[in-house]
Design brief:
Number of helices: 10
Structural class: alpha/beta
Helix content: 25-40%
Largest sheet: 8 strands, mixed
CATH class: Alpha Beta
Distance between the termini: 28 Å
Strand content: 15-25%
Number of domains: 1
Radius of gyration: 18 Å
Oligomer: single chain
CATH superfamily: Alpha/Beta hydrolase fold, catalytic domain
Number of strands: 8
Order of helices and strands: EEEHEHHEHEHHHHEHEH
CATH architecture: 3-Layer(aba) Sandwich
Strand order of the largest sheet: 1-2-4-3-5-6-7-8
Length: 294
């Protein structure tokens, strides 16, 4: 793993495959480290002829933490719900988009395929809106458009997401496994594997403070309803019908708004990427990006 200067911060990143192959930037979601794009999954994509790049977003993992930077989360959430003026936030989805382009700049990559999961899907949508000339294709996975009427969580999943995790390692892992039961793919849920991933993430970089600023960034960015119909970037939308954290209506709406978007709905997929579905997801992304090499 290495670090790169980008947009005034440092991003931790890792690459897989041949740099001469078309670049595929993987953007992870809310509070999730780049390791949530599991290494075997990344290598599967690299074996399909993609130069795969994964990285930690700001306030996550081993990238820059904005320690102590305040945000009025309750004010942001209230403004989002009531449609009133938004209080200032340290950064938003558009900032994440510029971070991502800055990493590509550091790597000398002018144009790339981009794929994002959950909040990462929101970020790649922002990238395609802001700088379509730099995007070969976009894949938006288990994400949504920012509209209040689409992609909303089940009440118990939302409550679990908004509950601060315990600080002690064993309690954090136990809490995380119970929370994951609420929104991971029910057919493939493996508590031992989920627990092992959570323990590894805790040991790598436990930073709960970043969650407040990242959630504020999502809500403060508002809806992309007006911009997405103008996106001309080739788009693939992947979503699970069993997703209880971002309802599948979020993916359906994303595909509806973006002209010519392809939609892959998976009955057995929740708000995760379970290993049994990797071949299908990798095939879909590889097929989507095969002839789009710029």
């Amino acid at each position: 793993m290495a670090t790169a200067p980008s947009n005034g911060i440092q991003l931790c990143y890792e690459t897989f495959g041949d740099p001469a192959d078309p670049a595929l930037l993987l953007v992870m979601g809310f509070t999730a480290q780049m390791t949530a794009w599991e290494e075997p999954f990344c290598r599967m994509l690299a074996e399909r002829g993609r130069h795969v790049i994964r990285f930690d977003n700001r306030d996550t993992g081993l990238s820059t933490h904005l320690d102590g930077v305040p945000v009025d989360l309750m004010g942001v959430l209230g403004a989002w719900e009531q449609g009133t003026p938004m209080p200032p936030v340290p950064y938003d989805l558009w900032t994440f988009a510029e971070d991502s382009f800055g990493l590509l700049d550091h790597l000398g990559i002018e144009r790339a395929h981009i794929a994002g999961a959950s909040m990462g899907g929101m970020i790649v949508q922002a990238m395609a809106i802001a700088h379509p000339e730099r995007v070969l294709s976009m894949t938006s996975i288990m994400s949504t458009t920012g509209e209040a009427d689409y992609g909303q969580p089940a009440p118990d999943a939302l409550e679990a997401l908004m509950t601060p995790p315990p600080l002690e390692r064993e309690a954090f892992v136990q809490f995380g496994v119970e929370r994951a039961k609420l929104f991971c793919s029910p057919r493939y849920f493996d508590p031992e594997r989920v627990g092992a991933r959570l323990a590894a993430a805790y040991d790598r970089a436990f930073y709960p403070e970043g969650a407040i600023r990242q959630l504020a960034a999502i809500r403060a960015s508002g809806s992309r309803e007006d911009a997405l119909p103008h996106v001309a970037v080739p788009t693939l939308v992947i979503h699970g019908r069993a997703d209880r954290l971002i309802d599948s209506s979020g993916g359906l709406r994303t595909a509806e708004l973006i002209p010519g978007a392809n939609l892959l709905l998976l009955n057995d997929m929740g708000h995760d990427l379970p290993e049994p579905l990797w071949p299908l997801v990798v095939d879909a992304i590889a097929s989507h990006t095969t002839h789009l090499v710029g």
